[in-house]
Amino acid sequence: MTVAPPTRARPDDSGRSVPPGGWLGWISTTDHKRVGLLTAGTSLVLLLLMGVLALLMRAQLARPEETFLGPHLYDQVFTVHGSGMIYLVMTPFALGLGVYLVPLQTGAPGIALPRLTLLGYWLYALGALTLLTGFATPTGAHAAGWFSYPPLADAEFSPGTGSDLWIVGVFLAVTGAILQGWAVLWTILRRRTRGMTMLRLPVFCWAMIATCLMVIGAFPALLAALTLLAAGRADASLFASNAWNIGYQHLFWFYGHPVVYVMFFPYLAAVAEVLAVFCGRRFFGYRGTVLSLLVFAALSMSVWGHHMFATGQAANDYYSLTSIALLVPAGVEYFGMLGTVLGARPRLRTPMLFALAFIPQFLIGGLTGIMVGTPVIDYHVTDSYFVVAHLHYVLFAGSAFGLFAAVYYWFPKVTGVLLDEGMGRLHFWLLVAGTNLTFLPMFALGYLGMPRRVSTYAVFDGFGTLNLLAGIGAALLAAGMAVFVVNVLRTLHARRLGRARPAGDDPWDGHTLEWAAPSPPPRLNFPADRPLPPVTSFAPLLDLRHREGGRA
């Protein structure tokens, strides 16, 4: 019997080690582009799974007194859907974008702390698997909501292994996010190329600075809350005191409000990049937007108590004031986007369509957020479908449209080929119709008194028509996502067969340094025979084209 020698990386002609190929190379990679793709790709797969759970809920609620899903199974489905979208989809994709793009945009050959970045991905993947394994336990998955307030989430009212797995899964996924946040932030601070001062960073990098500061500052509070919840499940007497129950809410929402902006800033910045590129001009109000992102991040750490108005255990006047103050930095960012577009002749390609739709749709989510941040309104709509509509206009009508703008925009950078434009437009229009048909009726449902987290309702409640419309909208969303999946798979298959039309290194005439690298970029991002252009502003490639045009 012979034992094969261990596989070791072979040095190339330059003396650098060549990483192993195949699946082993992917799971052990320290290349930030691969880790970013693993993170973003895993979150996209989980987005499809969470979408299936959403369809199950809409099918259950499409008619009054429906019995398609039993009450306990429905509770499991909405808990895992909400948990999955926040902990496993929108947050990891935002950080995955940062892991992939930040070193390229800063002109760095790689990410700082590459092994920590990879560890962050595997903690996230293991956390996702652990959370979803709850469905295979005898009592089913966790069913106390993505917030899991005690005493509802303690061992007495939420017994079973599924709830324990939920705690472990969320803990692992959030820990992974913290590690990746540290790596991205450290890369921006320490690995910028020559000439790239802080005020020459692209808008996306500034958004990642604000995002990572919130990840580092707020996410540990959730780890503390989960530890408290686990202790309460082991000792049932812990949550007999209301102080611990309210204390858990304070810890949870200290995480729970900043995470909204973690799931917003990177997508806002992706939209800003797309708007500037497809309008052929630099982003308007750059310095004001940079300042607003930092102010927004700081204020986001001071408003958590507006989620607790109805408890009577929060300083309502203070939290209402800080919530309304968010209008100021938000207005600066919207002014920057509108100033970029107004007077321009934009190219209406698929990334631009998603970016343009982001602006009014997220505005609905933002304005209704100010409404629920006002105690007198919040008392009426709290724990109703109005809040569900608000949250989904923020995270789907807003952030998810920014996500797809980013996917269509940077897909040729990642793969070297373009997604099909016709299918991209079909995907866009199905999502616009489906999003608004699904979530607009929920505002009316909540105002009329339909509580959230209920698995059915009576005929005489009068909620049937609006819920049916929301169900039809969800079907349109599913059709749009099916078109997107087919588009991606067809394009990747054509690329593998060599039949896809190459996009070139810079099909959009981009403004930032990632478009100076080959598509897809090599392991060290920028080849030695292709020097980086001088960095003279936050849009160095646009500056270069202007100089070359002036010489011509």
Count the DSSP helices: 18
What is the chains' assembly state?
single chain
Percentage of residues in strands: under 5%
Shape annotation: globular
Mean pLDDT over all positions: 93
Order of helices and strands: EEHHHHHHHHHHHHHHHHHH
Radius of gyration: 24 Å
Could you characterize the architecture of this molecule?
It is a single chain. The chain is mainly alpha-helical. 66% of the residues lie in helices and 1% in strands. It contains 18 helices and two strands. It has a two-stranded antiparallel sheet with strand order 1-2. A hairpin with a 5-residue loop joins strand 1 and strand 2. Helix 6 packs antiparallel against helix 7.
Q: What labels would you give this structure?
A:
single chain; 552 residues; mainly alpha; two-stranded antiparallel ribbon; 18 helices; 66% helix; globular
